[in-house]
Amino acid sequence: MNQMNEEFQQKFQQLLQLKDIYNTREVLPLRMQRLKLFDINFQLKQIRHQQQKRLDQIINSSIKSQPSQQIETSQDTVTKQFSSQIIVDQQNICLSCDKYIFEKRVELFCQNKFHHSYHSTCLATIMKNQLKLECIYFYCLCKSQIKIGQIFKQRAVDLEVYVNKLMENQLNYMKKSLPNIKLCANKDCDFFWVCKNSGKIRSQSYKTSQSPLKIYRISYVNYCPTCRFQ
Ligand SMILES: [Zn+2]
Ligand SMILES: [Zn+2]
Ligand SMILES: [Zn+2]
């Protein structure tokens, strides 16, 4: 890992020197020089991002393995070492493909106050793959659960189709595994409701279900308000 760091550092220094040259002298046609400068800035950002990512990993593993006091100190040093500029840069690099995000950025607010950004197409691919596993939650690559409200708030319209599918999965999961969910007795109707103390109500109804009127009532409550009066 140290070796990698050195390599990064060397490249970083070279880039900084080049940037300095291009900033102060005219060595190329103006347009070319501007493009070069743009490219250098981009590469500098990427290197900073890689370093930040590695730090994230180190912090994540230390959080898992260390008591809480030590976590605070390691986070403090990180804050001191890295300026807010790097955080801004990091927010423009996609966590999935590592490339700069020029447009359609989706930002996720993850555990331990990390912000993770994605191209909306990259996040769509991640969601698609998770949907294949019949998931009921989406997860960021950092393993944080994605709060769906974030997607809606950022108006990431490309992702809405996957969010809708996720909500369908959640609904099916609830219908299957929660005893208090009641489905409308009309097979063609999707209506469902949550029944409080369903056990109690049922035992009461059975006790008093002698008269035809009572039987009528029991079957009647198995329908949703719309189907009931059809
Ligand atoms: Zn991407
Ligand atoms: Zn994340
Ligand atoms: Zn119904």
Which overall shape is indicated by the principal axes computed on the Cα atoms? elongated
Radius of gyration: 28 Å
State the helix count: 10
Q: Say how many strands there are.
A: 4
Residue stretches low in confidence (pLDDT < 50, at least 5 long) are 200-209
The amount of beta strand, in percent, is 5-15%
- Report how far the terminal alpha carbons are from each other: 71 Å
Portion in helices: 55-70%
Average pLDDT figure: 77
What is this structure, in a nutshell?
By secondary structure, this protein is mainly alpha-helical.
What does the model show?
The protein is mainly alpha-helical and 230 residues long. It folds into 3 domains: 1-90; 94-177; 181-230, no CATH class. It has 10 helices and 4 strands; from the N terminus they run H-H-H-H-E-E-H-H-H-E-E-H-H-H. The strands form 2 sheets. The chain has a two-stranded antiparallel ribbon. A two-stranded antiparallel sheet has the order 3-4. Strand 3 (181-183) and strand 4 form a beta hairpin. The termini are far apart. Bound molecules: zinc ion (3 copies).
Question: What characteristics describe this protein?
Answer:
mainly alpha; two-stranded antiparallel sheet; 10 helices; binds zinc ion
Helix/strand layout:
Blueprint: H1 2-24, H2 30-65, H3 68-81, H4 84-90, E1 105-109, E2 115-119, H5 120-132, H6 148-153, H7 157-177, E3 181-183, E4 192-194, H8 198-207, H9 212-220, H10 225-228
Antiparallel strand pairs: 1-2, 3-4
Helix pairs in contact: 1-2, 2-3, 2-4, 5-7
Bound molecules: zinc ion (3 copies).
